[in-house]
Amino acid sequence: MCSILRNHSPLPTLPFIPRFKDQQSFSLILQQNPHLHLHHLKQIQAQLFHKSLHQDNILITKLISICALSGATDYATRLFESVFHPDLILCNSMLKAYTQNGLFELALHFYLRMLERGFYPDHYTLPYVLKACAGLSNVGFGEQVHGSLVKNGGVCDDVFVVNSLVDMYFKCLQSDAAMRVFQMIAEPNSTSWNIVVAGLLGSGDLESAKNLFDEMPERDVVSWNTLISALAKVGELGKARALFDEMPERNLVTWNALIAGFSQNGQCDEALSVFSQMLKSGVEPDNVTILTVVSAVGGAHSPDTDAVDRILSFARSSNSISVSTAVLNLYAKFGKIDDARKIFDEIPEKDLVTWNAMIGGYSQNQRPVEAIELFCQMQAENRSRVKPDGVTMVSLTVSCSQMGALGLGEWVHAYIEKNGIELDVFLSTALIDMYAKCGDLNCSCHLFWGLPKRDLACWNAMIKGLAIHGQGNEALEIFSLMERDAVAPNDITFVGLLSACSHGGLAAEGLELFDSMQSRYSIIPRIEHYGCVVDLLGRAGRLAEAYEFVKSMPVEPDVIVWGALLGACRSHQNVELAEEAARQLVELEPKHDGNYVLLSNVYASAGKWGDVAKVRAHMKAHDVRKKPGCSAVELGGVVHEFIAGDRSHLRSAEIYAAWDRLVERLKLIGYEPDTGALLRNLEEEDKEAALYRHSEKLALSFMLISSKDGSPIRIVKNLRICSDCHRAMELVSQLEEREIIVRDRNRFHHFNGGHCSCGGYW
Ligand code: ZN
Ligand code: ZN
Q: What pTM does this model have?
């Protein structure tokens, strides 16, 4: 876990190295500044030359150790090579530098050269050599070292060296050899015991490790921690907790091990309670603790707000970018996206993970505009330093789908190709979904068929894409190909298939699928599936059957189910059932204006004007306001949004005037504004939402006066398109010879030559 901690403010360093007179003053400088940068080291080396100290083995040894700490092994090697007569201590420091930095091959190579030059390894040399063998799993080399130790006697008695030998054998998966060496140690120290316990645990032998732990003559905190961490990792949390309670003294590592154990095994509430206990006992958390606890909060059922507040205050005072990013993710997950943004703005030097977390947060919280704005900011601020990757691109693509902004989506796609970002299956699936949701189904299919490999999510995206475009038969075809490829469908596949059948008018096929979903694929239907079936039956005019189906459902019907039934009742003129469905809707969502409008429409169509008045009074009394319709179009990379009755657009006057002119021409080819027998009573009062101000009409009018002649017009609407707008769109597509694609809350409508792809059914 430590490796993912990146402290973004390193210890303060000296701007330059003060002059030193002799060996002693130089040593003092090094002691006071253990973290030096390469340019400091170069200044030091120059001074060593100047004072003729550059052949001083003691000083060079110290310099090499400092290089090793900052990873400057190349420079350390050059320093070492510059010394004419290195001694064993200097050699050991070089060997250590390689091993510490994971350069195990170089370490072994260096060791062989030491032997060639006649150095006799001591008990500092060998542990580094053995560590390198372990790192490379080179048991052969390790055995040679072992052999020469036995032959030469002497150092073999050194417990420090023998411990390394035991550790090497364990890490090379030779537990038997390790145990044999361990048993030969005359007086094992606590480190020896700890190595063996850790080794046995590493090889999965929990039982022997536990026995050995019980046998240990003296257990230090490391011994306890080793066992507790191992138990926690394999999910033996009860045993870990028992040991934890039993141990005489605990340190931060102990607490971290137990908290991580609970958190990683999904017991997040338990993890948080251990954390609270830790704070109570006065132990200060470190970044490892905070990272673990933050992820536990994300998974907890009922995180206690007090604990969360304390975690957040610790996190804020930490200067780790990983901790800040984890907290940011947490806020985004809980929908507190503005709080996440505050944390984001406080991070001084953001890396890609942080930018991705914030951009992804916006896209998960349905705030596509901000996601894209932030991406532009990232590009502007970090031209070369932070480069976006596939994760960034998935978030952007999803944001484009949410906005229905095809132009932007195409730009993202081009950006991916231009910058050589790998088009893996996640990104491809996001693009397939984006093109479908933005109305370009051809491009979706093209991408889909071009993929070398398709996973389940990818097939599902394609089926869903075909479904919202009403292409039921094509969706079924894709499904059969998917089965031929032996990809097993899941519940999401069936939501796609069933909605494809209902949008495509394939009632029989849909019902058959619903049966096979349970009998053949053993997938338990969710409310979404039931909703699709009600829709299927309703569209086929089988209203009584649909109502029976709703009543027999094993789950409580939700607004989608009642909404589907109501929609069907309206198309098939069944007032009685419509009234029932609308009443249920109002009960389920008392604050949703649309439901009241529907109920009122039902009463109005049955001539029950008294009931219409009651509904209106109820809406007033309960302060139910109409959610404004909102339509968006994209022109030249800019998204323009229109709200019903909107006059805020810069070209508002032109837009309204153009629409008035257009209506006159539409009337000549048969357009009669459908002021709606059903809605009349409501709408006469509700002047704001008068028909001709519907947001999709404003958007259409804007596009007709602004976009290139003959180019397709794409409109995204937040609510269902009304029948009058639908009729108007059909006629405009004929009159202006323009393809119009409207994505409403439910599906796509492709208007072309006076007709819509939905066949008047939506
Ligand atoms: Zn309308
Ligand atoms: Zn349509």
A: 0.68
